[in-house]
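Lay summary. Proteins are chains of building blocks that fold into shapes, and those shapes determine what they do. In this project we predict the shape from the chain. Here is one chain we studied, written as its sequence of building blocks.
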Amino acid sequence: MKRSLMVILVLSLFIIITGCSSSGSNELVEDKTAQQIAEESFDKWYGIDSYDMDLSMNMKMSMASETIDISMDGQATVFQNPMKMKMVMDTTIPGMDQNMQITQYMVEEGQVITIYQQLDGQWYKTVIDDPAMSQMMQMDPRENMELFMDNLIQAEIVGEEKIGERDTYRIDLLASSEIFDQVLGDMTDESLGLNSEMIGSDLLSKIGDMKYTVWIDKDTLETVKCSMDLTENMRNLGSAMAEDQDTPEELKEVFNNMEMSMEYSILNHNKAQDFTVPDEAKNAMDLPMGA
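And here is the predicted shape, written in a compact code that computers can read:
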């Protein structure tokens, strides 16, 4: 169970880190391709100092003949250089009478990433000093954009939508499955608490291409909303694991019928309110990665 949740955490975190008013066209987008519009929007987004996010994630999986349906909704505040993030999520977990609130801080200090997390009123602290994982989480946002665009195989404007008061282009992006291998392939065993052979290049090559939808303001080129459905990727991963008799049965079962999707909106570009990590979090007990 711990191994399964750790793989899911890493994949979800990657996606989150890398990985989201007038009508008509204007000089910002005129004669530009969908890829050029997306590149300029991402560059604009990654160039700001701070922003807020509204985000949601839904995940359904089967374990021991039981279907587990988990949903998370919340808000995040992100400062990009150095990285500092606060996230408050309301989580619906089967078997619990009420939602569980998770508060998490992530802070970059030098070459070390520290995660503070409050669960059921108890604070825990995790220090990530593994070079490969720290490098992934500290990756410059423009390098994230470059990595995604280097693996882009298709970009298409599929419509125009109004998001709140904003007129946006809806753009579908498709990145090669090689992006998973490039980001996750170099992680050490200690990072994931897994044998590296379980999530090696051969396995990641079968995960399938990554589909990503973005809504971009037609007038400002600001990224307004992003959406991903990873259900097909997770099931491809489960099928690949099923072919390997060395893969633990719990992992095969978890990924084989998994459904996973996420959506987030970008708010308050360069206007996010600053925050500090509370003392009770800084003094929390250590929880090693992969424990």
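What the prediction tells us: The two ends are 11 Å apart (CA to CA).
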